[in-house]
Each structure stands twice: as C-alpha cells, then as structure tokens.
C-alpha cells in the first residue's frame, strides 16, 4: 500500500549486493547458477591443483590433517577454519591467486578477475 518503502528484490540464499561466485551474476546464488554443472566438473582443487574435484574430495588427501594448509598462518596440519591464531586480512595472507599469481588473496577476490571463479573463462 501507500507509504511502504520499496526494497530491491531479494534473491534466495544471497544478501543484497552479493554476487554468484561462479559467474559474478547478481540474480542468483551459486547453487542455482546456470554454469554450476560445468563448474563442478572443472573446479580446481586447492590441495593438489588438479581439475574436477574439490579439496574435500581430493584423492591426495590421504592423511587428512597432515596435508591441510592454513592460508592465515602458513602452517600445515590445519585449515583456516581451525587456525588457532587470530585471522588477519581475511585469512588469506598465505593464499596464492590463480589469476595474478600473487600471494595474499584468492582468485575470487583478485582485482584483475572480472569473470567470477574462472578468470579466463571455461577454457583455460
């Protein structure tokens, strides 16, 4: 009715201003991305750097905690979520970017990346 303020349409699973991390679209969350199935087949494992699986499902995982690497403190044996040290700079001080090859951020946050999770498109 009259007097109501207008709010932008909400996208389920997203906060206002957020983008799909796969394609950078603003009208859907990653779980509903039209490019999700292709992304699932071509994602790059952060543990072994191979395509087609996530770190959670990595065949090289083996001993679990022994292979974990913390992007926050740079130590192995635990992940960022289990780091005993205070999180600094978003917890990516020791992360390596696939786009610009610099340390300190992930490709999704790279200032040179304008294409979402696959900075050079699907055909790297």
UniProtKB/TrEMBL annotation:
<keyword id="KW-0862">Zinc</keyword>
<keyword id="KW-0479">Metal-binding</keyword>
<dbReference type="Pfam" id="PF00098">
    <property type="entry name" value="zf-CCHC"/>
</dbReference>
<dbReference type="InterPro" id="IPR001878">
    <property type="entry name" value="Znf_CCHC"/>
</dbReference>
<dbReference type="InterPro" id="IPR025836">
    <property type="entry name" value="Zn_knuckle_CX2CX4HX4C"/>
</dbReference>
<dbReference type="InterPro" id="IPR036875">
    <property type="entry name" value="Znf_CCHC_sf"/>
</dbReference>
<feature type="domain" description="CCHC-type">
    <location>
        <begin position="70"/>
        <end position="85"/>
    </location>
</feature>
<dbReference type="GO" id="GO:0008270">
    <property type="term" value="F:zinc ion binding"/>
</dbReference>
<protein>
    <recommendedName>
        <fullName>CCHC-type domain-containing protein</fullName>
    </recommendedName>
</protein>
<dbReference type="GO" id="GO:0003676">
    <property type="term" value="F:nucleic acid binding"/>
</dbReference>
<feature type="domain" description="CCHC-type">
    <location>
        <begin position="97"/>
        <end position="112"/>
    </location>
</feature>
<keyword id="KW-0863">Zinc-finger</keyword>
<dbReference type="Pfam" id="PF14392">
    <property type="entry name" value="zf-CCHC_4"/>
</dbReference>
């Amino acid at each position: 009715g009259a007097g109501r303020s207008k709010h932008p349409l909400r996208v389920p699973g997203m906060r206002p201003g957020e983008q799909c991390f796969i394609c950078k679209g603003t009208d859907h969350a990653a779980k509903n991305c039209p490019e999700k199935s292709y992304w699932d087949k071509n994602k790059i494992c952060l543990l072994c750097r191979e395509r087609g699986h996530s770190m959670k499902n990595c065949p090289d995982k083996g001993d679990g905690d022994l292979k974990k690497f913390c992007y926050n403190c740079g130590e192995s044996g635990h992940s960022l979520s289990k780091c005993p040290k205070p999180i600094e700079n978003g917890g990516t001080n020791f992360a390596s970017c696939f786009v610009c090859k610099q340390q300190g951020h992930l490709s999704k946050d790279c200032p040179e990346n304008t294409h979402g999770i696959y900075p050079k498109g699907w055909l790297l």
